[in-house]
Specification:
about 400 residues, four-stranded antiparallel beta sheet, alpha/beta, seven-stranded mixed beta sheet
Length: about 400
């Protein structure tokens, strides 16, 4: 007998109907099936500092964090996050009321948007954007309004006039990402000043994803948006240990903001994961106190890897947009006689034994992103050299 259902309505919430299995899962499975080098998903192929791993083991053995940690995060980590913000950027945060530990930056983004956005609110986001942004806006019932970063003189740039024009009377929040995934753009002081002035003028909240804050190269600099005039009281800043310390599986992220905003985000977060990563929180607290030499060496190492892959991609015939930050390189496949990033990426494992991600998944306007493909360079140098050699076969 056929099982009766109470409704013919689809099982998945209509707000999420456009979101299926992520492209990262699809391409990572393809990498395994074909034995390809996975330069698609952004996770390192080596672990972070040995002393930080040992700190996690020590916490486990000593019984610290094996039971539920405090909802806002352990005091040691909240204190370390506040100290990091003060030491690096001069931002003075109260660890008791202005810091919230989350299950990675992804939960921080979701909790922030669910807390601050109501049905009918518009959220202006820089496009292309990390795929969880769109899903979180949809879950909150908001309407996403993309402002597209466009190629200009070797990088992707923000059109400030376009950003201003995107703000309407229904705009609740700006969702900013710098250093920017997937394009590698780092917003300049002048651009951030204009964004801050717009937010103050139109009385907008801002959620700023700064998880790649320690991965900026050359003359680029990372400046937190919360440090600009009028922004401290309206900005939710998101950080992550995974990207900075190469422990992406630990899923330790955080939010810093004024108490009113942190309270709002915490009200949602408590009904998502409640708490997470107990012993790892102790280890991340120690990691944030590492000397400046760690962060400088981390940046230098990633810069060297960027240049290895950028050189290989250029020699393989791609147009390469050399990133000023993050650990991703966006390329244009049209010089190879290609124009469909999805088809190109699905065929690339068989053609060259390498996996990449089509940037179109990060766009509302899929045509605008169609010819762009993203590669991750957070891999060992020998792996990147092998990938570059394989790509020359194109």
């Amino acid at each position: 007998m056929a099982r009766m259902t109470s409704s013919a309505r689809p099982h998945l919430n209509r707000r999420l109907a456009e979101f299926g299995t992520t492209i990262f899962a699809e391409m990572s499975a393809l990498a395994v099936a074909t034995g390809s080098i996975n330069l698609g998903q952004g996770f390192p192929d080596t672990d972070g500092p040995q002393e930080i791993r040992e700190a996690a083991v020590r916490a486990l053995r000593e019984g610290r964090g094996n039971q539920y940690p405090p909802g806002p995060g352990i005091p040691e980590l909240r204190t370390a996050i506040a100290a990091h913000q003060l030491r690096r950027y001069g931002l003075d945060c109260d660890p008791d009321t202005e810091v919230l530990v989350t299950a990675g930056a992804t939960e921080a983004i979701a909790a922030s948007l669910l807390a601050l956005v109501e049905p009918g609110d518009e959220v202006v986001a820089l496009e292309p954007y990390y795929d969880s942004y769109a899903a979180s806006i949809a879950m909150a019932g908001g309407t996403r309004v993309p402002v597209t970063l466009r190629p200009h003189e070797g990088s992707f740039r923000l059109d400030l006039d376009e950003l201003r024009a995107a703000v309407t009377g229904r705009t609740r929040l700006l969702l900013i990402n710098t250093p920017h995934n997937p394009t590698g753009t780092v917003l300049t002081r002048a651009e951030l000043t204009a964004i801050a002035e717009l937010a103050v003028e139109r009385d907008l909240l801002v959620v700023t994803d700064e998880v790649y804050e320690h991965l900026v190269f050359g003359d680029a600099e990372h400046v937190p948006l919360a440090s600009f005039p009028g922004m401290r009281e309206r900005t939710v800043t998101i950080g992550s240990a995974g990207k900075t310390f190469s422990f992406t599986g630990w899923k330790v992220g955080w939010v810093t903001a004024v108490p009113e905003l942190v309270s709002a985000v915490r009200a949602v977060k408590q009904f998502l994961t409640y708490v997470s990563a107990g012993p790892f929180q102790y280890a991340v607290a120690e990691a944030l106190a590492l000397p400046d030499s760690y962060f400088e060496e981390f940046r230098r190492s990633m810069l060297a890897r960027r240049d290895i892959l950028a050189k290989g991609l250029t020699e393989a015939g791609f147009t390469v947009f050399r990133p000023a930050g993050t650990y991703f390189i966006t390329t244009d496949i049209r010089p190879l006689g290609e124009k469909d990033g999805f088809a190109f990426c699905r065929a690339l494992p068989e053609r060259a034994g390498v996996v990449a991600i089509p940037n179109a998944v990060f766009y509302d306007d899929r045509e605008a992103g169609a010819p762009f493909v993203r590669f991750a360079f957070c891999k060992r140098e020998e792996v990147l050299r092998e990938a570059a050699e394989r790509l020359r076969a194109l």
